Amino acid sequence: MPGPRVLVASDLDRTLIYSSAALALTMPDARAPRLLTVEVHESKPLSYMTETAAGLLAELGDTAVFVPTTTRTRKQYQRISLPGPEPTYAICANGGHLLVDGVTDVAWHERVTARLAEECAPLAEVRDHLAATAHPTWVRKHRVAEELFVYLVVERELLPEEWVKELAVWAENRGWTVSLQGRKLYAVPKPLTKSAAMREVARRTGAELTLAAGDSLLDADLLLAVDRAWRPGHGELAEAGFVGPGVSALPERGVLAGERILREFLRASRGAPRG
Fold this sequence. Notes:
The chain has 9 helices and 14 strands.
C-alpha cells in the first residue's frame, strides 16, 4: 500500500543553503566537503550546499512534496537553482506569496494583504520609524520587500543591541515582529507567517505528514505548525534555546547542518507508516 502524502516545508538560507560567510567549515581544508553553487548574483556565486546535500534533496522529491519556504522576495528566490525537479509550490515573502508552478496565486496574496490591513500598523509607519531611528553609521541599506515588510542591511558589529531591543518592543505594540539574521534586520507583520501558507499547501496536496526546518525567529511558527521539525545548531532559534513539541535541536552548524536536515527529512519521509 502507498504511504501517506508527506509535505516538507523548509527554510532556505542558513538552513539548506549557505553563503560563504555562513558555511562554518571548521574542519581541516583537506577534509572540507565538496560544495555545489546554487545561487549566482551579479555574476558571482552567492549560496552553496554540499554535493551530498544536493543528492539528498534530489532524492527527497521521490518521497515527499518539497516546498521551499523563505522570507526572500520572489525575485530573490528565483535566483536560486536547487537540485532536483522544480517544486510545484514555493512560499516566498514569509508567506505573503504562494507560487504555483512559479506563478503567484493572486487569491492567496489578496487574503494575506487583507488580513494585514485589519490587524497591523501600516507598512509606511514602520518604514518611516526605521528611517528616523536607524543611524547611517551602521545601516547600509533600507529595503521594502514586496510591499509587505521591511528590512535593513546593517554592519552587525556596529549595531547597538539596545536599539534592537527598543525596536522590538515598539514593533510588538503595533503587531509586528523583529528578527536579526546575519547582516539583515527584518520587521515583519505578525500575521505574515510561513505556517499559514504551509497549511494552505498541505490542504491542497492532501498531506498527512508535515515536516519542516528553519533557523530563525521567523521560522518558529512553521516549526510549531508541523508534525516534526528540526533546527540547526546555529541561528536565532539555537541562540534562544528554542524548543517545542516535535522540534529536534541538531548539533551541526553551518553547511553540514543542511546535510543533516535533509537526512532527517528523508528518514522521516521513508519511515512514515503506510496506509
